[in-house]
Write a structure and sequence with these properties.
This protein has a single domain, classed as 3-Layer(aba) Sandwich (Aminopeptidase), CATH 3.40.630. The protein is of the alpha+beta class and about 140 residues long. It has 4 helices and 5 strands; from the N terminus they run βααβββαβα. The structure holds coenzyme A. Coenzyme A binds next to strand 4, helix 3 and helix 4.
Length: about 140
C-alpha cells in the first residue's frame, strides 16, 4: 500500500471517500478545499486499482491546545471500512506529519467527535495528546 499526494486522476475516488466521511458536504465545499494553497490531500492506493483512504492537512491560524501559529491541522481522515485496522490510517498520518514538518510546522492539531471512540483511540496510538473536550453551540440570528 502506497501513500502519496493527491493527483487529478484521483478525483472520483477522493470524492467517493470524502462523501462517505462528510455526507452533507457540497460540490462547493470540495472545490473550496481543492483551491487552498496552504493545504494538501494525501491518498492511500488500493491494490490493484483505486484508493482506500485519504487525509487532508492544512494550515490554521490557531488550534486548541497548540502553541504555534500558524499550525498544521488534520482536517480530514478516512480509511475505507474493508481496509481499517491494517495500518493505512497510520501511514496517512505519517505522510501528513512529513508534509507539515517539511513546511516548518512544529505541531499538528486535530479533533474527533465525542462519540467517535475509534478515532480517539487511533489518535492516541499515533502520538496525539488529548488537550480539551468541547461542546459547540449555534444560535440563528
Ligand atoms: C480513524 C481511521 C482513519 C483509522 O484508520 P485505520 O486504517 O483503521 O488505522 P490503523 O489501522 O492505521 O490504526 C492506527 C492506530 O489506531 C488503532 N486503532 C485503529 N482502529 C482501532 C479500533 N477500532 N479500536 C482501537 N484502536 C484502533 C490501531 O491499533 C493503531 O495503533 P497501533 O499501531 O499502535 O496498534 C478509520 O477508523 C476511519 O476511517 N474511521 C471513520 C472515519 C473517521 O472517524 N475519521 C476520523 C475523524 S476525526
Amino acid at each position: 500500500m502506497r501513500v502519496r499526494l493527491y493527483q487529478p486522476s484521483d478525483d472520483p475516488e477522493w470524492r467517493r471517500m470524502r462523501t462517505a466521511l462528510w455526507p452533507d458536504q457540497t460540490a462547493a465545499d470540495m472545490a473550496a478545499w481543492r483551491s487552498r494553497a496552504d493545504a494538501a490531500t494525501l491518498v492511500a492506493e488500493r491494490e490493484p486499482a483505486g484508493l482506500c483512504g485519504f487525509a487532508e492537512v492544512g494550515a490554521r491560524a490557531f488550534a486548541d491546545g497548540c502553541d504555534s501559529s500558524p499550525v498544521a491541522y488534520l482536517e480530514g481522515w478516512w480509511v475505507d471500512p474493508d481496509r481499517r485496522g491494517q495500518g493505512v490510517g497510520a501511514a496517512l498520518v505519517r505522510a501528513v506529519e512529513t508534509w507539515a514538518r517539511q513546511r516548518g510546522y512544529r505541531e499538528l492539531g486535530s479533533d474527533a467527535l465525542l462519540d467517535n471512540l475509534v478515532s480517539q483511540r487511533a489518535h492516541l496510538r499515533l502520538g496525539f495528546s488529548e488537550v480539551e473536550r468541547a461542546v459547540r453551540y449555534r444560535k440563528a440570528l
